[in-house]
Automatic annotation (TrEMBL):
Residues 26-91 form the ABC transporter domain. GO terms for molecular function: ABC-type oligopeptide transporter activity; ATP binding; ATP hydrolysis activity. This is ABC transporter domain-containing protein. Pfam families: ABC_tran. Signal peptide: none annotated. Coiled coil: none annotated. SUPFAM superfamilies: P-loop containing nucleoside triphosphate hydrolases.
Length: 173
């Protein structure tokens, strides 16, 4: 089975547990809790009235966007999936949620096969194999260290981002 976490995912006007399980009979409350803990969503869910029975508004309008992303991430992990596809898993989230998702992704890489589609290089840095695309074609492949060593497109992206980070850290006059 394949699980997918898309950049734009939908939350139903149902309970959090429903939104994670999505009528999959094999996804028990124990599996819902386990997946939520795995992606660091459990702590905020515990703070909600009725916890996993808390009813979301259509589109998850009564929780933050970051919390919604964590629920969708738990949804992707709650089933019996051997392959997980993450399509821009950290897009449109605050830095706290991004860090939580990054930590969860690092853990997932150890247990599952993951295909991560990402513009943020921090999402893929620890991948076994990185495919670099340019103009719709794969132009490089290798590990982070290997791609840096070969000074190609990927290394150029890292250098550009490092330069931007250094510039952003400079004090304003």
């Amino acid at each position: 089975m394949i699980a997918l976490m898309q950049q734009e995912s939908y939350l139903f006007a149902e309970s959090i547990s429903f939104n994670i399980a999505l009528n999959r009979e094999e996804v028990t409350l124990d599996k819902i809790r386990e997946a939520s803990k795995y992606v660091y969503a459990h702590s905020f869910i515990e703070q909600l009235p009725e916890e996993y029975d808390y009813k979301l508004l259509e589109g998850g309008k009564n929780i933050s966007e970051g919390q919604g992303r964590l629920i969708v991430f738990a949804r992707a992990l709650a089933g019996e999936s051997d392959l997980i596809v993450l399509d821009e898993a950290t897009s449109s989230v605050d830095s706290v949620t991004e860090n939580l998702i990054q930590k969860a992704i690092e853990r997932i890489f150890q247990d599952k096969t993951v295909i991560a589609i990402a513009h943020r290089l921090s999402t893929i840095r620890n991948s076994d194999l990185i495919l670099v695309m340019d103009a719709g074609k794969i132009v490089e492949r290798g590990s982070h260290a290997n791609l840096i060593e070969h000074s190609g497109v990927y290394a150029g992206l890292i250098e550009t981002l490092s330069g931007e980070a250094e510039l952003a850290a400079l004090p304003l006059r």
